[in-house]
Amino acid sequence: MADGAELRERIPHPPAEALDLATILRTLGDPLRLEIVRVLADGRPRICGELAELLGVPTSTGSYHLRLLREAGITRTRVRGTSREISLRRDDLDARFPGLLDALTRS
Amino acid sequence: MADGAELRERIPHPPAEALDLATILRTLGDPLRLEIVRVLADGRPRICGELAELLGVPTSTGSYHLRLLREAGITRTRVRGTSREISLRRDDLDARFPGLLDALTRS
DNA sequence: CCCTTATTTCAATAACTTTGGAAATATCGC
DNA sequence: GCGATATTTCCAAAGTTATTGAAATAAGGG
């Protein structure tokens, strides 16, 4: 690690008020990312490698898509040991865009 | 007009069964196109030039975005005189993805 | 500490998207 | 047909996004 920055790594998430509908739609408008959201829709968090394997992509590709989902405010990422636990930000999304997630994950 | 193809010009629209959610989301994930959909959400059709002017873009740019909306199955385009009348495909969208349009145009 | 495991970042590349001026096409009314 | 009006298509430039191997970083456990 680079000299000096010894604080525990914090993963940045946008606050709920900052969520932008066009950004969310653009982010979900990719089959891989939409599939990730559908998998997470059951409320159970998954770890990054689990999702990459499920989608059949290298972890570097998975990590890229998970970063976009997190930056758009769609998912939340928590450090747990050497893994990251990914979950849907369902309450924030439901509060900000009622009905959207339901419409996307229905059936 | 090119020699021989004298039939009345028909504008292609995808059938309702062919609508794809990821394609629709990708298409709406552009601020200009999302704005067009919000304008059309009142159910009143608009002509192309009206929309381009409203958005402050050249008609060639407007025409490009309207083509993407039409090809994604989000809007319907009808020839009316020298103009094209653009409207939302609300019934098809509501039937195929219940709640989606409502969630996008609420407020 | 060092090793292992999980994940991210980097860098290069390829593929796709957006923009807008100019030219082409379509339709109408005369 | 012709001219006017509305829109689309073409094209090239610019911008953005996706993909992935390799290197870097992080955390945990001996």
Largest interface: A-B, 20 and 20 residues
Tell me the name of the CATH class of chain A. Answer: Mainly Alpha
Question: Helix tally of chain A?
Answer: 6
Indicate the proportion of strand residues of chain A: 5-15%
Low-pLDDT parts of chain A are: 1-8
Strand order of the largest sheet of chain A: 1-3-2
As for the CATH topology of chain A, it is Arc Repressor Mutant, subunit A
Strand tally of chain A: 3
Instruction: Report the CATH superfamily of chain A.
Output: Winged helix-like DNA-binding domain superfamily/Winged helix DNA-binding domain
What's the pLDDT, averaged over the residues of chain A?
A: 92
The CATH architecture of chain A can be given as Orthogonal Bundle
CA-atom Rg of chain A in angstroms: 14 Å
Tell me the distance between the termini of chain A. 45 Å
Specify the helix fraction band of chain A: 40-55%
Shape of chain A: globular
Indicate the multimeric state. Answer: homodimer
Order of helices and strands of chain A: HHEHHEEHH
Major beta-sheet overview of chain A: 3 strands, antiparallel
- The overall number of domains of chain A is 1
| Backbone structural class of chain A | alpha+beta
List the helices and strands and how they pair.
2 copies of one chain form a homodimer.
Chain A: H1 21-28, H2 31-40, E1 46-47, H3 48-55, H4 59-71, E2 75-80, E3 83-88, H5 90-96, H6 100-105
Antiparallel strand pairs in A: 1-3, 2-3
Helix pairs in contact in A: 3-4
The structure holds a DNA duplex (30 and 30 nucleotides).
Q: How would you sum up this structure, described in words?
A:
The structure is a homodimer of 107-residue chains. With 107 residues, chain A is of the alpha+beta class. Chain A has a single domain, classed as Winged helix-like DNA-binding domain superfamily/Winged helix DNA-binding domain (Arc Repressor Mutant, subunit A). Chain A is built from 6 helices and 3 strands. A 3-stranded antiparallel β-sheet of chain A has the order 1-3-2. In chain A, a hairpin with a 2-residue loop joins strand 2 and strand 3. The relative contact order of chain A is 0.20. The interface between A and B is medium-sized, with 20 and 20 residues. Chain A binds a DNA duplex (30 and 30 nucleotides) through helix 3 and helix 4.
